[in-house]
Amino acid sequence: MKKKNKIPLNRAFVYIAVLAILLPVKSIRISVFNYITQIKLKKNIEIAKQQNEIYKKKLNDIKTDPDVFEKSVREELEFVLNGEIEYRFKVNKSE
């Protein structure tokens, strides 16, 4: 089992040694930075796509279901119909 662990460990040392040699070169450093930035941006794009799907579903629900539309308007826009009385209560955050 120790031989299996040594192979990845040896590779890690080789990678570290190669990076230590190449990182002082500005173009290599920029390439590494761009690669890391690209990975982060891909993750952000994936998160944005997931959020977009959630918003599309919510928008579709608002367009197709009158009850969801009314609830959304009342909660998000604080809309009150004529003749309705709205009660607001102060909430103490310390309690």
Structure, described:
It is built from 3 helices and no strands. The mean pLDDT is 84. The protein has one domain (2-77). Helix 2 (26-64) crosses helix 3. The chain has 95 residues and is mainly α. The N and C termini lie far apart (57 Å).
Defining traits:
mainly alpha, 95 residues, 3 helices
Provide a quick synopsis of the model.
This protein has three helices and no strands. By secondary structure, the chain is mainly alpha-helical.
Q: Report the mean per-residue pLDDT as an integer.
A: 84
> How many individual helices?
3
Terminal CA distance? 57 Å
Oligomer classification = single chain
Topology (elements, then pairings):
Blueprint: H1 2-22, H2 26-64, H3 66-77
Helix pairs in contact: 2-3
